[in-house]
Amino acid sequence: MGFVHLHNHTEYSLLDGATKVADMAAQAKEFGMPAIAITDHGYMYGVPSFVSACREKGVKPIIGCEVYFTPDRELRRDKKPELYHLVLLAKDLAGYHNLIKLCSKSATDAFYYKPRVTIDLLAQYSKGLVASSACLAGIVAQSVINEDLQAARTWARELSALFAPGDFYIELQDQGLVIDPRERKKSVDLQDTNVLTGRVISQRELNKQLSALAKELGLKTVATNDMHYLRREDASIQDVMLC
């Protein structure tokens, strides 16, 4: 069975991703992967180099971005913004153009701490895009972690309604993590979220609940690895970047 990595951070996820785009394309080719995605945080600066590297290796480039979604439709600036991750992938040319518009408007019109994407902006530019609920810092996962299953249902329904039928996925990851709110500040991803919880939960238990939610709502799931570095021996390099 083939596998394609759909959630990857390169050197263009500044101070977070430790993977050079040329090396990522070469590794995908070596492993016989037909395609590879780029989903850097908030911006698309790495796309030209990524596409060139993939074409050189005969690997299909999938262009995407992990945007900073905010439930604050007013885009307030009187407090630190509430931000969550959301993965967007272009499935066609219209989606690519809409992804560019989303990233540009979030950076120029909605920037506060980070480029913010609202539900209204997503509704305006969702055509041609495939979305997934992202990592532990996604709003659906965070709602489950905070034991608010109704909020998880509501957000999963509201987000999935923005995209074409079948184009919103509940994302599952298994790095063997245990989510502990006392360790939140050690995670760059979880620093983006605002809601604290006293709950400690394993990632595998979270995946069970997310899978059950997807089944309940008739949504598909997708397995990703949230790649930030290429090889096991690169882990220490990425740790230095986070310090």
Give a verbal description of the structure:
It contains nine helices and nine strands. It has helices spanning 21-30, 47-57, 93-108, 119-124, 139-145, 149-160, 188-191, 203-217, 235-242, and strands spanning 35-38, 60-69, 84-90, 116-117, 129-132, 168-172, 178-179, 201-202, 220-223. The strands form two sheets. Strands 1, 2, 3, 4, 5, 6 and 9 form a seven-stranded mixed sheet that branches. Strands 7-8 form a two-stranded antiparallel sheet. The model has no long low-confidence stretch (mean pLDDT 92).
Element string (H = helix, E = strand): HEHEEHEHEHHEEHEHEH
Main pleated-sheet profile: 7 strands, mixed
- Specify Rg, calculated over alpha carbons: 17 Å
Q: How much is the average pLDDT? A: 92
